[in-house]
Design goal:
Length: about 325
């Protein structure tokens, strides 16, 4: 190899090495936040994603240091998209085929109705399209994970971290409250096992809270609630694809679908064909959770609490209205059908 070629290769290698090293301080700090969040969750309870977000906010001042900035931005952008892509391994057509008509009818009506409700009432609350759409999808599908997936494809000036984090905090809190109160409501109303499972699975936002509420009552209720919830999660694929196509037509510089969305759909399709070993599914699922926690920790670090307060109460009011809407609709369906 010619000396010039060797010199160029050495320069490229040195440049690449420096770039990788520049990620380390911010990445390692976000990883420490995630470790602390998991420890708190395992020993004292609480949603790990929310803990990562709140811990990140507590260290906002760190975002002012240039040596941390690159790694924090890497976690909040690249790892966010990678975490969303890996969500595809949690979805398969078997989850849909194992369910009866009641969950399908319930979810098929309440999910789009909740998104439409959020778009309409959010406009009355003077919220922008980003806030209304992300709030609707978060409540209708699967909480923070759905919010992150949709936020990653929405372009425009209204897309910002403080709006997304306000929705993440609100939807997690409401999901936890639903997990606490809905099982008691189901018992008070005298709902049967199937009715209770479908109600919990189609009205509570996050998967973990659905499982917690269902298994609190019985294994049968927990299984049915989880299956119903996974049907909602499965609908994240067509919803995100549809929204991606809609926004692509509005943005002339966006000529193709985002890579992470394509990977998301491919993994869901491959998993439906049972071509992914279960051990790989488990590793990918855990990897997705880790990347999303790193992303939320990084977003928290980049967010000033005073700036987040400027969002106001309207996003939380919309989330509450969305939660009441999907809860009432779900309960009405299981009691009538």
């Amino acid at each position: 190899m010619a000396p010039d070629s060797l010199r160029q290769a050495a320069q490229l290698s040195f440049s690449f090495s420096n770039k990788v090293r520049s990620y380390f301080p911010g990445f390692i700090f976000c990883l420490l936040i995630v470790i602390a969040s998991v420890y708190i969750t395992e020993h004292y309870g609480g949603p790990a994603l929310l803990m990562a977000l709140l811990f990140g906010m507590a260290f906002h001042s760190l975002s002012q240091y240039p040596e941390y900035k690159t790694g924090i931005e890497f976690c909040s952008t690249t790892l966010l998209r990678l975490g969303v892509a890996l969500l595809g391994v949690r979805i398969s057509l078997d989850q849909v085929s194992e369910l009866g008509s009641l969950p399908l009818i319930n979810v098929g009506v309440t999910l789009p109705a909740t998104i439409i409700f959020s778009l309409l009432f959010g406009k009355l609350l003077n919220l922008n399209l980003f806030q209304r759409l992300v709030a609707g999808v978060a409540v209708a599908i699967c909480g923070v994970s759905a919010a992150l997936a949709v936020a990653a494809i929405i372009p425009g000036k209204d897309k910002n971290t403080k709006n997304l984090l306000a929705i993440a905090v609100g939807v997690t809190g409401l999901s936890t409250l639903s997990m606490i109160f809905y099982p008691g409501l189901a018992k008070t109303l005298g709902l049967g096992i199937e009715q209770t499972g479908v109600f919990l699975g189609s009205s509570i936002h996050d998967v973990a809270q659905v499982a917690g509420a269902g298994y609190l009552l019985s294994y049968e209720v927990g299984d049915l609630a989880t299956y119903t919830k996974m049907l909602r999660v499965a609908l994240l694929v067509p919803i995100v694809f549809l929204l991606s196509l809609i926004f692509k037509t509005q943005e002339s510089n966006q000529s193709k679908l985002p890579w992470f969305l394509i990977v998301f759909a491919l993994l869901a399709g491959i998993n439906s064909l049972h071509l992914i070993p279960q051990v790989v599914v488990e590793y990918a699922t855990n990897g997705s959770k880790l990347f999303l926690m790193l992303a939320l920790a990084a977003m928290g670090v980049r967010t000033n609490l005073l700036e987040m307060a400027s969002v106001g109460w309207n996003p939380f009011i919309l989330l509450l209205l969305n939660s009441l809407f999907i809860g009432i609709c779900s309960l009405g369906f299981v009691m009538l059908l």
